[in-house]
Amino acid sequence: MIIPAKDESERIATTVKAALELPGADLVVVVDDGSADGTGQAARAAGARVVRHSRNRGKGAAMESGAEAVRLLDEGRDQPRHLLFLDADLAETARDAAPLVEPVRAGEADMTIAVFTSTVKLGGHGFVIRLSRDGIRRATGWVATAPLNGQRCLTRAAFEAGRPLAAGFGVETALTIDLLRQGFRVREVEVPLTHRATGTDWRSQLHRARQFRDVARALAVRDPAVVARAGRLLGRRP
After folding, report:
1. What are the pLDDT digits (tens) for 137-177?
2. What is the pLDDT of residues 92-121, one digit of tens each?
3. In sequence order, what are the residues at sequence separation of 6 or more whose Cβ sits closer than 8 angstroms to the Cβ of residue 226?
4. How many Cβ atoms from other residues are within 10 Å of residue 225's Cβ?
5. Phi-psi region of 48 (alpha: psi -120 to 50; beta: other; left: phi over 0)
6. Cα separation, 124 vs 171, whole angstroms
7. Global pTM?
8. Cα–Cα distances in Å, from 77 out to 25, 71, 73, 80, 223?
9. What range(s) does the Glycosyltransferase 2-like domain occupy (predicted)?
10. How far is the C-alpha of 83 from the C-alpha of 81, rounded, in Å?
11. Angle between helices 226-233 and 202-222 (to 10 degrees)
12. Which of 128, 88, 134, 151 is nearest to 208 (CA)?
C-alpha cells in the first residue's frame, strides 16, 4: 500500500502500524512529500519503506512515486501487487481498510473508492465536493458519493491507464473520470475509516482554495464548461 504524507510526524507511525495489520499486507510505502518535520523517519521506524521528495510536489506526484517504488519492488513477482492508497492521518482506523481491497482482489472492480461510515464535521461549505461530483457526473454519468476520497484500491492496469495523474488535489476527480471513460469498473465501498477534520483557520481555508483550484484545473481539461460552473458554485458570475 502507498501512503502520501507531508508533515504528518504525529500520526504517520500509528497509520503505518495499523496498515500493516491488514490481511496480506507485506509492504507499506510512505512517500514523504517534502516534509519539514520527522515524517519520513517516523514512518521508517514504524516499518514502512520511505521514498522522499526533496520538495513538496503534490499528491498526484506522490502517488506516482509510490506506485513506481512498488513496481520496482515487484520485479520478479508473478503478478504485480494491487495498489491501495491511504491517507497519512487515518491513524488506528487504517486497519479497517480491508473492504476496499476485497472487490479488486476478487476481480469485481478495477478501482474502489472509500465512503466513510463515520463522518466528521467539516469547516468548509462543500464547494469542492460539489464541483468534483458535478464534474464526474457530467463527464461520465456516474454520481459519486465521495468523489474526493483518497482511500482507493486499484489494479496495476487501472493505475497505469490513469497516468499521467492530474496535479495536486485534482488527482482523485481526474482518475475517476479517466478510468470510467475507458470502461474500467469503479465501485464505492463503505469503510469505518476516519481522518482528521479540516478546520476553519486561515491555513485550512487556504487548503480548500488549493483543492478547488486543482479540481477545477483537472476538470477544465475534461469538460470545457467547468470554469462557468466553478463560478456559479462560488456565487459569482462566470
Report:
1. 999 999 999 999 999 999 999 999 999 999 889 999 999 99
2. 999 999 999 999 999 999 999 999 987 655
3. 131, 135, 216, 219, 220
4. 12
5. beta
6. 20
7. 0.88
8. 15, 10, 9, 7, 39
9. 2-118
10. 6
11. 150
12. 128
